[in-house]
What does this fold into?
Amino acid sequence: MKDVLDELAAARRAMGKGSVSAGDAYTIEVRRRYEAQIDDVWDALTNPERLRRWLRPVTGDLRLGGEFELDGGERGEILRCEPPRLLKVSWLYGPDADAWPGTSEVEVRLVPGPTGDTAFELTHAAVVEEPLFPTYGPGAGGVGWDLALLALAQLLADGEAAAHEEVQKSPEGQEFIRRSAAAWGQAHLAAGGEPEHVAAAVEATTEFYAPDPT
It folds into this structure.
């Protein structure tokens, strides 16, 4: 349990505003360090065999300008690829994604550290329609990325693939989700969110990812 929560505490979260091709967007940002060489982290982000072990299986033309699809339905285009430091993709999801091209973009930046570690920064910018943002706040995407980056940490540490459903259903995973939702609530408050709205969004996000079995 301590290791899982240590991974949660290793990240710094922020919410802000940006833009994508479709217009103004909300942004969520996660920063942390991994005890792995930059080339190893880059490979975990771009090698389909390793990517499926911490995120999802991916298919498509995995090169600059190519299109990809994850088995969860997310899809997009590779917009920038500058090994081993920068990867940017469009990130479309949901039944109406084709009607809103470019509504979401994910950018990852890597910087080598002084001791063989790697600074990792992920920014997800999205045009979020009703009711997603008003209901869930930044935790809508933030908790999902926290879970994915927990799996990436495991892969980089010991090469093990993540069992996403098992993790989310376990007592440790449920506690991780609750604390992740609360951490994104703090980022929402720091960005100027109204306390009552933030509290309701944290509750809704927690219920979505870790529903009460009763």
Q: What stands out?
A: The beta strands are 12-20, 23-34, 58-60, 67-70, 75-82, 86-90, 104-112, 118-126. Residues 80 and 88 are 5 Å apart (CA to CA). The mean pLDDT is 90.
